[in-house]
Amino acid sequence: MMILFLQICVSSVDPLAFPSAVEAGAQMVEIGNYDSFYEMGIQFSPEQILKLTRETRRILPSITLSVTVPHMLSLPDQVKLAELLEQEGADIIQTEGGKYSSPSKPGVLGLIEKVTTATPTLAAAYSISRAVQIPVMCSSGLSAVTAPMALTAGAAGVLSFQRFQADEQGWVDTIKSVRFGGAVRISTMDWLGQSQYLRQTVFWPSLSSAVSELLKQVIFSKHALVNMLVTYWSHFLDGTDEYLKSILYSTILCHSSSRNNCKGRVNIKYYIVPGYKKTGAAKSNKDRCADDKLKKMALRVIAESLSEEEIAGLKEAIPCDGHQQQRLDEVL
Description:
Elements: E1 9-12, H1 18-24, E2 28-31, H2 35-38, H3 46-59, E3 64-69, H4 75-87, E4 92-95, H5 107-129, E5 136-138, H6 147-153, E6 157-158, H7 168-176, E7 183-187, H8 189-194, H9 208-221, E8 225-232, H10 238-256, E9 265-272, H11 285-303, H12 308-317, H13 322-331
Parallel strand pairs: 1-2, 2-3, 3-4, 4-5, 5-6, 7-8, 8-9
């Protein structure tokens, strides 16, 4: 909590465990994560979940509360439970799906596995989002392939979905995906720290025309909340600061006018990298060699859990010349 501005959510099925977590800094609590109980043959009935929700609301009347609807229930029963949870004061409904999103087979069969695993949570998101007024969040069984389907189905947010940040189209797609009145969280953690190691060095100010307009569209037209986490390194550019300030000033001006209907807002906070004064681009051949070894190790670990299609997509996302492409093929 001391180093992050992101909302910290604590999950439990014991309402009495929440107060100490909130006191420690959690801004959101969740009744959910039933998977470990399923493995022991324990399931939660709608009545039990409603009781847990009422008790949590009694103990913490103002905390943001997310409640997971079990996928073990029939779809009509999931919708009915979601409606009752909304009446009991839940702020967010979370859906469940298959437990694993990593396919066991490569190629087209792997893609089919991913869609099949995500089907329960996608179906629940579609049905529940049309029955309640509060946001619906998808989680279990999703991957980079099926996460966009969740947004199309009606989910206001997706858990465990990340993009390669050094790809401008990735930024654009992420920002465009926000729904009316929804929220989008963007991290420049990877971008500012790693962009200088790419073949073509590109920093945030170079993206200002595309991203700035999209941010303004999301904030002003869709009344959305934009949370941005910016990493502060020793090689942080002053131009980035000025660009981020311009976004803040635009939203302040919009809110200050009685003629504008501005309900969206942007929050920008910095993460100061520990020892940031010693950070920076690798300068010596020895440093570059060590950095390359770490990158290769990381890529190998990542590749072990990716399908052939995902590895191909990763190769396309990393700009390389002929020699670099050959080395990348050796790693992946």
